[in-house]
Please model this.
Amino acid sequence: MECSTLETFELAKKIVDAAIERQGGDILMLDLRDIASFTDYFVICSGENERQLKAICKEIDMLLAKEHISPRRQQGNFASG
Model:
């Protein structure tokens, strides 16, 4: 599914809100539209432990499923160290 710039901003903001909902820390939403051709926004956040990281990932996965979007990549989960 391809999104317009406004839609990608709204989606990135929803992802930030999902991370906040699960008490993600150090949340950062980077605007990469003028820097990278492969993405518009990049969301980074941290978690305190494996349980919290899984909860954050699950919340974001559920959000994307509601939007009928399959994530292309997910990095930095607890298992990836």
Q: What stands out?
A: Residues 11 and 67 are 9 Å apart (CA to CA). The beta strands are 25-31, 41-46.
